[in-house]
Amino acid sequence: MIFAKHTAILFSLSLAACSTSSKNLYYSPLSAIPVSPSGAASFLTVTPMSSPNTAVKISTNKQVTDEENQWITLGLPAPDLKIKGVRVCYKVEAASPGTTYISQIRLSTMTTPDASLVVHDDPTNLTAVTSTCYTSMTPTIQVNGAISLEMKFVFENRSDVIRLGEVALLTHLMGRGNPGVTLAAGGFTTCALTTEGNAKCWGKNDQGQLGDGTTVDENKPVPVTNSSGLSKLNVGLYHVCTVSISGGVGCWGGNKEGQLGDGSKEDRHSFVAAKGFSNDITDVAVGGAEGSVHTCALSGSTGKIQCLGSNQYGQLGDGTQSSRGAPVTVVNLSGALSVVAGAYHTCALTNTHGVVCWGGNSLNQLGVGTITDSSIPVEVRGLSSGVKSLSAGYSHTCALTEIQGVKCWGSNGFGQLGSGAISNSPIPLSVVGLGKGVIAIATGAYHACALTQAETVKCWGRNNKGQLGDGTRIDKYSQVDVRKVSGAKWVSVGSEHSCVLTVAGIQCWGDNTYGQLGDGTTKTSDRPVRTLDF
């Protein structure tokens, strides 16, 4: 391929919104990864996810050529789609900085392509040579047809490269319930993120996990102080961390190991900005147990992961066992797509859709066939490819495969691997009865749940507090149906409770000692109850 100076390349994605009969579906932003003018292939796969406010990954096996327009139509069923902004994570690698850049970003409907909305245009070219995210909040665009996102690149030299990380349409659907609400349960606390990007939490608050400025437990949702413009959140045993639409990290709660990233070890009862992470974060994970807590964040443009906090088992992945008060980069890993954290271990989904893990391994949670800890990423046996998403429990890990099956490994004293037995496993085992038809997974301390294509939820493992939602308190070594859940769109679980986002709102079940079910009581329930205000 011959490149003249100032070659312009137009990269386009289109999103189709098709009508449905009666259900309100929740879809995440659109995202894309690397586009290179040098002829290197970019891998393009379209994967719609049911998780609200997380990225749908886009890649292509087509080569980007001079002046070529590429249109990819995604058939996402949606009655009404509202686009509120665009986020582009990128990095320019150029011989002469400033001469290779992203010159234009625009949105247009496919029915009236001439009526485009320019999100970004010259002369303010996007030229950053370090990984960064550009966010533009547009006037709300309501779509009930199809819309395209176009990006124009200008290159000075043939060898120059613009690397795209996440390219996201910040969007939610209108309709009944609370479309676009992100739900996250962890420890004995539950939080939700509204379409406006504000956080609300409920449950245990002894270290400020609710972020409302107090340490008083709450049995119904309360607003997190100073939280706004957020796109994702993750809840741990003692602390909560979020990602903003501009790629920053903020946290609140316990901070004894410096896990909040604010440079101190003081608990924070309201939102504080984390320091030292790159400014293009698209995913965050929080993990920990008594005396060991850590936080990790993923760069949207490089796929590198940074971690801080406790590290006695190597869970920060920097090749040491020294705890860190500032973020360190996980070694031997780039191009990661997501990150999850357990009590003493961390795992990542790689750009080949394989799985690597690092940290404590006394209960086989790294999935490498041994019980040896590792302070650097190691590949999970049998999962070098074919994985769609991950979830980490206290000392077990589960993977959702691209064929919509579930595999788990690690500790299994309560049947949390779903294999039909209670023996620990050093390698991934298939969850009995879930070889297909699963679209999301979530793991708790000693149990796990799956969201099915039929919009139901199935759970397995420990059930001492009714966290499996089957109306009993008997442990289950293989999956069982959660009672009276339909229209489910997302599932998340804490230590001993579980929650689901449905078309009608949020429902939770299991332990409610601290009010983590959010129903206005502290009564534990072995079947779903409605969370107030959602």
Brief overview:
The protein is mainly beta and 534 residues long. It has strands at residues 7-18, 30-32, 56-58, 73-77, 81-93, 101-109, 117-120, 132-143, 146-155, 161-173, 182-186, 189-193, 199-203, 218-223, 230-235, 239-244, 249-253, 268-273, 281-289, 292-299, 305-309, 324-329, 338-341, 345-349, 355-359, 374-379, 387-392, 396-401, 406-410, 425-430, 438-443, 447-452, 457-461, 476-481, 488-493, 497-502, 505-510, 525-530.
List keywords for this structure.
534 residues; mainly beta; Methylamine Dehydrogenase, Chain H; Jelly Rolls; five-stranded mixed beta sheet; disordered N terminus
Can you give a write-up of this model?
The radius of gyration is 22 Å and the shape is globular. It has strands at 7-18, 30-32, 56-58, 73-77, 81-93, 101-109, 117-120, 132-143, 146-155, 161-173, 182-186, 189-193, 199-203, 218-223, 230-235, 239-244, 249-253, 268-273, 281-289, 292-299, 305-309, 324-329, 338-341, 345-349, 355-359, 374-379, 387-392, 396-401, 406-410, 425-430, 438-443, 447-452, 457-461, 476-481, 488-493, 497-502, 505-510, 525-530. The protein has no helices and 38 strands. It is 0% helix and 46% strand. The termini are far apart. By secondary structure, it is mainly β. The strands form 10 sheets. The chain has a 5-stranded mixed beta sheet, with no helix packed on it. It folds into 2 domains: 7-173, Jelly Rolls (Sandwich), CATH 2.60.120; 182-387 and 485-530, Methylamine Dehydrogenase, Chain H (7 Propeller), CATH 2.130.10.30.
